[in-house]
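Re: [ENG-882] Designed sequences occasionally contain unexpected residues at chain ends

Forwarding the minimal case from QA. C-alpha cells:
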C-alpha cells in the first residue's frame, strides 16, 4: 500500500500526461561503432544515486543466477531491420512512414509470453528481460506519455502486462529494458535524430527529465514486482532514481554495474557484471539469419566462459513480427536446454576457480563447498562408451575427493554390459597434475555421440598452486607488423615462467564471439616481474584482437582482450 501511495504521489507530481508534440575502412567503421556504443552505454552516472544503490543481496542473486533471456522486439520487427537505428540519418518521409504506418500493421497475433517464459525456464535461465521501449520511442505498454505505443495498433493489448504476468505465474524473475533516449521525442522537439549526443538531454533538459520519470514510474508502479532493470543510453541517473525509489529491491544491471555488450572480457572483472549478447548478429528479428546464428554448442561455450569468469549471460532472442518464436532460434535454445538440464548445478550458485580455464578445460566452483566443476569442451562426437583421459594442473585431490560426471550415475552405460566396473569415472593425483579418466555414460541422443561439453564434479579438492599474473601493455600496428608489449606482474609460486602473446583477426563488434582460435607467438622465459615485447608479421588492412600470455608449470593465464589495427 505504501509503495502504491508513493508511486501515485510521484506520478501526480511529475505530471504524467505529457504532450509530445574498403576492408580497412569497414573495420575502422566497426571499431568506431563499437566505441560509440560503449560510450553511449557507459554514462558517467554508473553506480549508485545518492543513497540509492543496488542492495548487496541483489548483486549476490545475480552472481548465483547468472543466466537470463533477453527479448528485443519493437514496431520495426516487421521490417527485419536493426531495431530503432534506421531512424538515425533517415529522411523526413522515412521517419513519417515509420511513425504513422508501422503501428497500423503491428499485429503480433501469435505472441504468447508464456512460450518465452517456459522456454527460458527449460534452458535453466533464472530471469528474462523485455524491451519495453527501445530508442525509437515505441512503447510496448499502455502508456499515457505518448500515442506511439502498442495500444494504438491492431493488437491493442498491453504486451508488458502479458509479459510480467507470465513471469509471475511461472516463477521467473521479471526484467525490463528501458531506453531513456527517445528518437521520436527528439524529432518532435525539432532535434536531429542521433545518439552522440542525444538532444534534448534526458539527463538535464527539465521537460525531458519529467518525460523519462513519468514513463519509468508507469513501469515500476503498475506491474507489481520488477526484479531486474536494464537502462540503455543516457538518462541513467534519472531512471535509477525512480526505479530505486519505487522498488528498492530491484536490481539494476546496465547503468549500475559493468555490462559489456557482445563480448566476454578477457580478464574477469572484480565486481558483479553482466554481458548481453545476441544469438545472431542483430538484436531484433532478422530474416537473413541462416548464416549468422551461433549454434547450440557455441552458446554453451559462451555460457561456460561467462560463468567461469564470474559474470551473468543475458542471451538475446528476437521474436518474429507476429510474436512467434523463430524456429531456428528455438532449435538452438532447445540444445542449450538439454545441456543445462544435465549440468545446471555447474553454472548456478557458483564462483570463479583460481583460474578460469586450462586451454579448452574450464572451471567453476561451488560458492559454499570445496567443489570444483570441470567443463571438458571441444570434445566432438564423444560417444557415451568412449573413455578419454585428461590432466588438469590447477586442482589437487585430497583424501576425501570424489569424482562424478554430471547427469550420469557412473554405474550403467546402456547396451554395454559394463556395469558397474567399466562405467565408473576414475582419478589419480600425480606429480604433473590430477589425471581424470571417464566416459560420458548417459544416453542423451539416439546416436550415442555427444558434441556438447561434458562436466565433471570434483568434491573436497584444493588449489594446487598460486597462479601468475600478466597484463597487456600497448600494441602498435604498422607496415604489416604488430609490436606487442606486455607486463609480467607476478610469477605466482613458480621460479620461472614462459611469456608471450596470442592474437586473432577481429571480425567485428557483433561477430567477435564467433572466432575463438588464437595464434601464439614464441614463448620466452622470465624469472622475475617486468615488461616483455614481441613483433609479428600479419596481413595488413585488418584489425586484430590480442592478449599477453604467461605459462606457469601447471597452467596458463592471459591478459585482457585488446585491439590493434594494421595498415
Amino acid at each position: 500500500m505504501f509503495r502504491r501511495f508513493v508511486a501515485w504521489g510521484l506520478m501526480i507530481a511529475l505530471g504524467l500526461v505529457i504532450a509530445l508534440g574498403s576492408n580497412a575502412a569497414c573495420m575502422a567503421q566497426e571499431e568506431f561503432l563499437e566505441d560509440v556504443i560503449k560510450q553511449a552505454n557507459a554514462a558517467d552516472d554508473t553506480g549508485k544515486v545518492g543513497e540509492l544503490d543496488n542492495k548487496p543481496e541483489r548483486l549476490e542473486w545475480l552472481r548465483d543466477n547468472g543466466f537470463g533471456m533477453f527479448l528485443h522486439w519493437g514496431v520495426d520487427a516487421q521490417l527485419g531491420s536493426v531495431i530503432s537505428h534506421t531512424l538515425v540519418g533517415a529522411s523526413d518521409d522515412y521517419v513519417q512512414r515509420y511513425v504513422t504506418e508501422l503501428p497500423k500493421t503491428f499485429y503480433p497475433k501469435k505472441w504468447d509470453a508464456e512460450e518465452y517464459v517456459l522456454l527460458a525456464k527449460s534452458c535453466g535461465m533464472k530471469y528474462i528481460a523485455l524491451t519495453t521501449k527501445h530508442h525509437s520511442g515505441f512503447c510496448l505498454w499502455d502508456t499515457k506519455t505518448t500515442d506511439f505505443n502498442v495500444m494504438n495498433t491492431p493488437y491493442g493489448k498491453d504486451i508488458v502486462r502479458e509479459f510480467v504476468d507470465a513471469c509471475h505465474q511461472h516463477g521467473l524473475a521479471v526484467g525490463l529494458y528501458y531506453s531513456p533516449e527517445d528518437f521520436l521525442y527528439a524529432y518532435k522537439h525539432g532535434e536531429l535524430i542521433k545518439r552522440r549526443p542525444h538532444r534534448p538531454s534526458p539527463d538535464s533538459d527539465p521537460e525531458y527529465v519529467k518525460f523519462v520519470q513519468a514513463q519509468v514510474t508507469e513501469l515500476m508502479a503498475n506491474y507489481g514486482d520488477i526484479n531486474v532493470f536494464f537502462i540503455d543510453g543516457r538518462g541513467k541517473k534519472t531512471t535509477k532514481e525512480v526505479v530505486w525509489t519505487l522498488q528498492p529491491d530491484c536490481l539494476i544491471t546496465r547503468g549500475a554495474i559493468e555490462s559489456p555488450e557482445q563480448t566476454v572480457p578477457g580478464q574477469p572483472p572484480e565486481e558483479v557484471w553482466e554481458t548481453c549478447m545476441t544469438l545472431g548478429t542483430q538484436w531484433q528479428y532478422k530474416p537473413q539469419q541462416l548464416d549468422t546464428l551461433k549454434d547450440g554448442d557455441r552458446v554453451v561455450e559462451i555460457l561456460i566462459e561467462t560463468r567461469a569468469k564470474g559474470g551473468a549471460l543475458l542471451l538475446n532472442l528476437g521474436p518474429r513480427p507476429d510474436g512467434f518464436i523463430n524456429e531456428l532460434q528455438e532449435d538452438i535454445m532447445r540444445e542449450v536446454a538439454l545441456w543445462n538440464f544435465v549440468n545446471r548445478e555447474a553454472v548456478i550458485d557458483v564462483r570463479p576457480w583460481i583460474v578460469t580455464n586450462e586451454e579448452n578445460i574450464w572451471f567453476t566452483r561451488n560458492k559454499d563447498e570445496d567443489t570444483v566443476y570441470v567443463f571438458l569442451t571441444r570434445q566432438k562426437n564423444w560417444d557415451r562408451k568412449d573413455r578419454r583421459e585428461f590432466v588438469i594442473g590447477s586442482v589437487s585431490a585430497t583424501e576425501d575427493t570424489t569424482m562424478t560426471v554430471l547427469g550420469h550415475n557412473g554405474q550403467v552405460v546402456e547396451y554395454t554390459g559394463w556395469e558397474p566396473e567399466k562405467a565408473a569415472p576414475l582419478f589419480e593425483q600425480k606429480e604433473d597434475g590430477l589425471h581424470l579418466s571417464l566416459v560420458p555414460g548417459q544416453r542423451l541422443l539416439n546416436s550415442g555421440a555427444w558434441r556438447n561439453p561434458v562436466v565433471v564434479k570434483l568434491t573436497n579438492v584444493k588449489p594446487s598452486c598460486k597462479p601468475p599474473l600478466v597484463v597487456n601493455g600497448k600494441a602498435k600496428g604498422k607496415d604489416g607488423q604488430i609490436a606487442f608489449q606486455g607486463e609480467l606482474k607476478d610469477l605466482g609460486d613458480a621460479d620461472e615462467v614462459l611469456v608471450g602473446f596470442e592474437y586473432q583477426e577481429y571480425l567485428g563488434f557483433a561477430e567477435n564471439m564467433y572466432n575463438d582460435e588464437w595464434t601464439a607467438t614464441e614463448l620466452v622465459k622470465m624469472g622475475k616481474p617486468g615488461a616483455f615485447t614481441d613483433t609479428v608479421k600479419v596481413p595488413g588492412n585488418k584489425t586484430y584482437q590480442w592478449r599477453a600470455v604467461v605459462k606457469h608449470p601447471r597452467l596458463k593465464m592471459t591478459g585482457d582482450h585488446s585491439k590493434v589495427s594494421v595498415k
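QA comment: On inspection the terminal residues look reasonable. DSSP finds eleven helices and 29 strands in the chain. Proposing we downgrade this to a documentation issue.
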